[in-house]
Amino acid sequence: GQQLNQSPQSMFIQEGEDVSMNCTSSSIFNTWLWYKQDPGEGPVLLIALYKAGELTSNGRLTAQFGITRKDSFLNISASIPSDVGIYFCAGLAVPGANSKLTFGKGITLSVRP
Amino acid sequence: DAGITQSPRHKVTETGTPVTLRCHQTENHRYMYWYRQDPGHGLRLIHYSYGVKDTDKGEVSDGYSVSRSKTEDFLLTLESATSSQTSVYFCAISFAGGGGTGELFFGEGSRLTVL
Lengths: 113, 115
Hints:
The structure holds two protein chains of two kinds.
Chain A: E1 10-14, E2 19-24, E3 31-37, E4 44-49, E5 55-58, E6 61-65, E7 71-76, E8 85-92, E9 102-103, E10 107-112
Parallel strand pairs in A: 1-10
Antiparallel strand pairs in A: 2-7, 3-4, 3-8, 5-6, 6-7, 8-9, 8-10
Chain B: E1 4-7, E2 10-13, E3 19-25, E4 31-38, E5 42-51, E6 54-57, E7 64-70, E8 73-78, E9 87-94, H1 98-101, E10 105-106, E11 110-114
Parallel strand pairs in B: 2-11
Antiparallel strand pairs in B: 1-3, 3-8, 4-5, 4-9, 5-6, 7-8, 9-10, 9-11
């Protein structure tokens, strides 16, 4: 089946640093999304990307839909303690209401004050 | 915040007992999903529903059944719980179908421990 690869499993950064996360696949996806899960909560959508090459920002977050449609990245600038959590990438291979999202396994981000 | 309520939030049960988890939404969204989250596996889709009485299997549906008799409620049942079903279960809803936009709204999760 289709898989989305996120690595490493965990990242540790200092408060104030920028961090970049990648999500890759051997298959083409037509929609890429990034979700964040705070400890003890459900995931929340951060950014959705619908067009190859698209670059979208949401505050300190910037995400890009790779031109090959096989990857996406998420940048967090000037990290703060509340950035701690699990970051999931997700993709849709085929648009359509009954199509199902594929999720990556997530990256756990820790921010040292 | 999307109006999604999961119950119970925590449950400990014994192997072989039946368990039902409930997801209730107040958004009138057509699409509802059940995921499980396990370390090293991320989020995996168990079952989903695209309307009342319309359900379909996800990638890890064995050992689970679902029912949706009303738009607002989506029930996940473990007929005979096993230790491998110890997990955190998340309900999600979508107004356009996750396959339409990929935008899902998740509940807060139900932590199930099967002893």
